[in-house]
Amino acid sequence: QVQLVESGGGLVQAGGSLRLSCAGSGRSAAIATMGWFRQAPGKEREFVASISWRDGSTSYTDSVKGRFTISRHNAKNTVSLQMNSLKPEDTALYYCAAKTPFAIVYNYWGQGTQVTVSS
């Protein structure tokens, strides 16, 4: 089992920045990919960004490209999401997730951390 705990959410004005962190524990050595997802009220959960634990390759949804940066810290089993130039539409509950090798879907999830961007 892998446990994921997010931190760093909060309230920020539009144009501001926040940094989310996700710490993995348990069988974290089994992780192949870690990602961030978000869910706004009344909307479905959507992919935000991901990073390969092996080679550090990243992927982003179009709406956050150039504003968000995902990074990993292998020794600490931690992944971060630096969010700059935040917009009110970025307001959501942000989830950290992990995927083990050969998994088709993300199979471990954190509890989520709230990000609220005021206009």
What does this entry show, briefly?
It contains no helices and 11 strands. With 119 residues, the protein is mostly beta strands. It is globular and about 40 Å long.
Please describe what this structure looks like.
0% of the residues lie in helices and 54% in strands. It is mainly beta and 119 residues long. The strands form 2 sheets. Strands 2, 4, 5, 6, 9, 10 and 11 form a 7-stranded mixed beta sheet that branches. Strands 1-3-8-7 form a 4-stranded antiparallel beta sheet, with no helix packed on it. A hairpin with a 5-residue loop joins strand 5 and strand 6.
Labels describing this entry:
119 residues; mainly beta; 7-stranded mixed beta sheet; 11 strands; globular
Shape descriptor reads globular
Element-level helix/strand string: EEEEEEEEEEE
Q: Let me know the number of strands.
A: 11
Q: Tell me the major beta sheet.
A: 7 strands, mixed
Helix content: under 10%
Work out the radius of gyration: 13 Å
* Low-confidence segments: none
Query: Which class do the helix and strand fractions yield?
Result: mainly beta
SSE order and pairing:
Layout: E1 2-7, E2 10-13, E3 18-26, E4 33-39, E5 46-52, E6 58-60, E7 68-73, E8 78-83, E9 92-99, E10 108-109, E11 113-118
